[in-house]
User: Fold this.
Amino acid sequence: MNMKVRLILSANLHELANAVSITLDVPNGCTVRDLIIRLGELNPEIPRILLRGDELNENYIVIVNGRDIHWLRGLFTALNDGDEVLIAPKAFIS
Assistant:
């Protein structure tokens, strides 16, 4: 069973993906890390930029439904049907 997640990419990421907003079908149980790896299908540079092993690149921020994943389960934050995920450089947000 799949669920839909809306992804919003800012700055250099939307240029790499050729889209600012994307709705993706992802499997149930998908995590933020899984979603980032899946973005490699759009452009292999995206996961290379965002991931440092099991850590998020410290220059980027991921917000799920208005909450920073730093305060949730980090890259292992589980996603749910209808979630909205924003990925942006920290400098872009602050």
Notes: The chain is about 25% helix and 35% strand. The longest strand covers residues 2-9. The domain at 2-93 is CATH 3.10.20.30 (Ubiquitin-like (UB roll)).
